[in-house]
Amino acid sequence: MATILIVDTNAADRNAYIALLGNLGYRILEAANGIEALDLAQAELPDLIITDIIMPLMEGEELIRNLREIKPDIKIIVVSGYGNEAVQREKIADAFIKKPFESIELLSAVRQLLDTGIRRSPLY
């Protein structure tokens, strides 16, 4: 089964993602910031990253650029309460989901990216 790395400064949000996706059999890793996420990604090489964009220590946009250097084909979903124009305009992530969102929206993006191997899906 695929490995998913959840990156969010809010522990309650991380726990919600873990509860939702862990029940589907995915192996879940978690990080509270971009630096921690980058270290975990280098060690574990997850199949998918779900990340917030506004974070201390390392913003999500910088994290994504670093992740693409480590594993260019890694799937990335940005989940943020901010409509980050740079992420959407440059399409540096495979999907962008605006908080708050419905669980089905996230599940659909995860399944589309992992189960079909689609890269850079039109989920913006």
What is this entry, summarized?
With 124 residues, the chain is an alpha/beta fold. The protein is built from five helices and five strands; from the N terminus they run βαβαβαβαβα.
Helix and strand layout, with pairings?
Elements: E1 3-7, H1 11-22, E2 27-31, H2 34-44, E3 48-51, H3 60-70, E4 75-80, H4 85-90, E5 95-98, H5 103-115
Helix pairs in contact: 2-3
Notable traits:
single chain
Rg measurement, Å: 13 Å
β content, as a range?
15-25%
Q: Report the order of strands and helices.
A: EHEHEHEHEH
- Briefly note the structural class of the backbone: alpha/beta
Percent helix: 40-55%
- Overall 3D geometry? globular
Biggest β-sheet: strands ordered side by side in the sheet: 2-1-3-4-5
Oligomer: single chain
Task: Give the biggest beta sheet.
Answer: 5 strands, parallel
What are the segments in which pLDDT stays under 50 over at least 5 consecutive residues?
Answer: 117-124
The number of E-state strands comes to 5
Question: Please, how many helices?
Answer: 5
Mean pLDDT: 86
> What separation lies between the terminal Cα atoms?
26 Å
Structure description:
This protein has a domain at 1-40. The chain is of the alpha/beta class. Helix 1 links the parallel strand 1 (3-7) and strand 2. A 5-stranded parallel β-sheet has the order 2-1-3-4-5, with helices on both faces. Mean pLDDT is 86; it is low at 117-124. The chain has helices at residues 11-22, 34-44, 60-70, 85-90, 103-115; strands at 3-7, 27-31, 48-51, 75-80, 95-98. The N and C termini lie far apart (26 Å).
